[in-house]
Amino acid sequence: MVAMSAATASDAAIAIATLDTLASKRLLGARKNAPIIQNPVAFLGLTFRCPVVLLCYLCYFCCGLLHNGNVGLNRSMNPSTTTAQSAPEPKSGLLWLASYPKSGNTWTRAFLSNLAAILAGEKEELEVNSINRFSVGENFIHFYEERLGFKPTEQHHKEIAAIRHEVQEWIADQFDGLVFIKTHNGLVLDHGRSVINFAVTSGAIYIVRNPLDVAISLSHHMNRTIDEAIEVMASRDNSTPINEKRVHEIWGSWSQHVESWTRKPHPAIYIMRYEDMLNAPKKIFGALARHLLLDPTPAQLDLAIERSSFDKLQSQEEETGFQEKPQHAARFFREGRAGQWKDVLSRKHIERIVNDHGEQMRRFGYLPLA
């Protein structure tokens, strides 16, 4: 079950952290010309088999992404400018790929991974289970077990919250470059501590999707009814449980999640709508590549988009399976289209979602309903 019990939710003591909090922290950038790291999962030893991993440096970031050692952080917004200027240049940085679940995070990772492979001169298309060559999650339970000295369980949310920053700093310190980090965490506080370590963060890409469609995808993903999925999306301070493989993530409600990452525009956070990715992939993914200061040719961009298309990912999953698919889900890549709510949701479902999330839906053009 994804939603926490009421007692656990109350104990979590979660508070939404706005971009005011982000701006008040020292948001560090990766070193100039830092490469994107290939295969961070293998490098971090999740297989615990290979003691030495050869890092293949792929795509280089230019100094234009950086501003006085920071990533797009306006000096006027940073109360500790003097400290930031005198601090040593960081050797690496985490670039967060953030979204509420079932909003296009995996699709974005697939595009970035395929683009990186193409820019590296690889001829073969990237298989769907290889997209983690260029990204890693920070909530693998091994990271926390090593530091705590025991395997955490549902009773250890507070202990997990206390060492998240240490884990994220450790991940960043393993590389001399940028690392894509997938997360479904909101930009929130967990037991009074931010779930994001700003000191080792270079920026974030945030993907938002119409909650009317998210409800349908989430119900299939969790193998639950649409009503239950809608309830999860409306549950404030919602958290996932700690399981055998991963520690908990703080989702909050859909509205909490979206507001936490997007409340105020910030140049270090790049926002994309799932629907725009579908309707104008060349425009949207091309803009993302330019934001990251990658410089693909039109042909390379087209090839990366084609290799990461939903049809391609769905076909590969049917052939080889997808390692990230929950055991109880029929498939991970299911529909991949916008507006399916018009055919699936009842009037009662639509009214409940609009009532729960109308404010954030209006901000992103999902209201009035079309």
Write structural notes for this entry:
The radius of gyration is 20 Å and the shape is globular. It contains 16 helices and 8 strands. The protein has helices at residues 6-12, 19-24, 40-43, 81-86, 105-119, 141-148, 157-173, 211-222, 226-234, 254-262, 274-279, 281-291, 298-307, 310-320, 341-344, 347-363; strands at residues 15-16, 93-99, 135-137, 178-183, 188-190, 193-194, 201-208, 269-273. The longest helix is centred in the middle third of the chain and has 17 residues, at 157-173. α6 packs across α7 (157-173), α8 (211-222) crosses α9 (226-234) and α10 (254-262) runs parallel beside α16 (347-363). The relative contact order is 0.17. It has a 5-stranded parallel β-sheet, with helices on both faces. Helix content is 41%, strand content 10%. With 370 residues, the protein is of the alpha/beta class. A hairpin with a 2-residue loop joins β5 and β6. It has a single domain (6-363), classed as P-loop containing nucleotide triphosphate hydrolases (Rossmann fold, 3-Layer(aba) Sandwich), CATH 3.40.50.
> What fold name stands as the CATH topology?
Rossmann fold
Give the tally of structural domains.
Answer: 1
SSE sequence, one letter per element: HEHHHEHEHHEEEEHHHEHHHHHH
Number of helices: 16
Overall mean confidence score, pLDDT: 75
Strand-pairing-aware structural class:
alpha/beta
User: Roughly how many Å is the radius of gyration?
Assistant: 20 Å
Helix content: 40-55%
Main beta-sheet strand count, sense and barrel state: 5 strands, parallel
